[in-house]
Amino acid sequence: MLTYLRKLRGAASALPPRATPRQMALAWLGGALAMACVANVGEQLPSGLLLGSFGASCVLVFGYPDLPFSQPRNVIVGHLLSSLVGLLLLHGVGPQWWSLSLAVGSAIALMMLTRSVHPPAGSNPVIIFLAQPSWDFLLFPTLFGALLLVVVALLYNNGTRSTRYPQYW
Questions:
Q1: What PANTHER family does the record point to (predicted)?
Q2: What is the DSSP string of 9-22?
Q3: Domains of the chain: which residue ranges?
Q4: Which distant-in-sequence residues (6+ apart) come within 8 Å of 75 by Cβ?
Q5: Is the dihedral of CA 66, 154, 118, 122 positive or negative?
Q6: pLDDT tens per residue across span 86-129
Q7: Cis previous bond, 141, omega within 30
Q8: Residue 62 in contact with residue 31, Cβ under 8 Å?
């Protein structure tokens, strides 16, 4: 028990280095532009495109675009799988606390299995259980919104950085 409690102190590692002012400004602008695109295009559609987890996706794709979690494959497949699992359990079992927990756990496992982990997508089942949408939620906002976010990230990150985005598909 004492060994376990000692683990709670952490590893005493140093904080990661602070981003440069340029990196912060580019991440800020990229996130703002991406959400402006998603929100504006969504206003033209009957169902909209806003999904709370897209804000967290912007943190990754614009703030840390070289991480595996930030790659287009992870963004698109992660959001799609997580929303699919959430919808399957919501409509197949019902809005129970335990079906929500199974949906989140299953989404994590499926993203890991498919090598498409995108942490913000882990909140999609929670969003789905709260909103209780129909099956079209899988296409709008999930798939179409994730695709639009990736398109903006591809254009923006390659236009503002010297390195390539994505690292892989």
A1: TRANSMEMBRANE PROTEIN DDB_G0269096-RELATED (PTHR33741)
A2: T---PPPPPPPPHH
A3: 22-160
A4: 57, 60, 61, 118, 121, 146, 149, 150, 153
A5: positive
A6: 999 999 999 999 999 999 999 999 999 999 999 999 999 999 99
A7: yes
A8: yes
The helix-helix angle for 97-113 and 124-131 (nearest 10°) equals 150
Asked if residues 167 and 157 have their Cβ atoms less than 8 Å apart, the reply is no
Q: Is 79 helix (H, G, I), strand (E, B) or coil?
A: helix
Whether the pLDDT of residue 46 is over 90: the answer is: no
pLDDT band at 159 (very low <50, low <70, confident <90, very high): very high
pLDDT computed for residue 48 by the predictor: 86
Indicate the residue type of 67.
L
Contact call for residues 160 and 120 (beta carbons, < 8 A)? no
In total, the chain counts a number of residues equal to: 169
* Residue 89 confidence (pLDDT): 98
| CA distances to 12, 13, 41, 72, 121 from 58, in Å | 29, 27, 17, 12, 12
Compute φ and ψ for 14, nearest 5 degrees.
-75, 155
Rounded Cα gap, residues 152 and 24, in angstroms: 17
Q: What is the mean pLDDT of residues 45-66?
A: 95
